[in-house]
Amino acid sequence: MSAVRFRPLNRKSRAEIARVVTDYERSPLEWDPAHVxxxxxxxxxxxxxxxxxxxxxxxxxxxxxxxxxxLGHHWxxxxxxxxxxxxxxxxxxxxxxxxxxxxxxxxxEHGEAWAREQGATQIKTTVHLKNxxxxxxxxxxxxxxxxxxxxxRLG
Length: 155
Hints:
about 160 residues, alpha+beta, Aminopeptidase, five-stranded mixed β-sheet, 4 helices, globular
């Protein structure tokens, strides 16, 4: 794959928002084959991002190929106020062909800069234990392991 470019999500493009939300919703299938994709959740996320005030607390940068097709994204949300203001990484996704090229690190660096501009004092994320590449990248960038989310499927 040749050159890629980074740019903000086109908030006026339902198709582009749908692509980001769908990639976000489908990406857990890579490490959790039992992950359930819910069309209603996808539609609600799309509608939420189409609202005019969605830009206030959400930042989404996309990675595009030369034709402008979205091949990845980094989505952060600002939460809290004052000294407790922090950024949460909602999602970071890259198409498999883009992985291993340092693009995730660049996306994370861009996201951290945005979070600082918003007054965040911390950035948080969750990573599946079966995603060792992202765990390693986060630790290399100074993230520390914290809580462990445990779950059990019923039925």
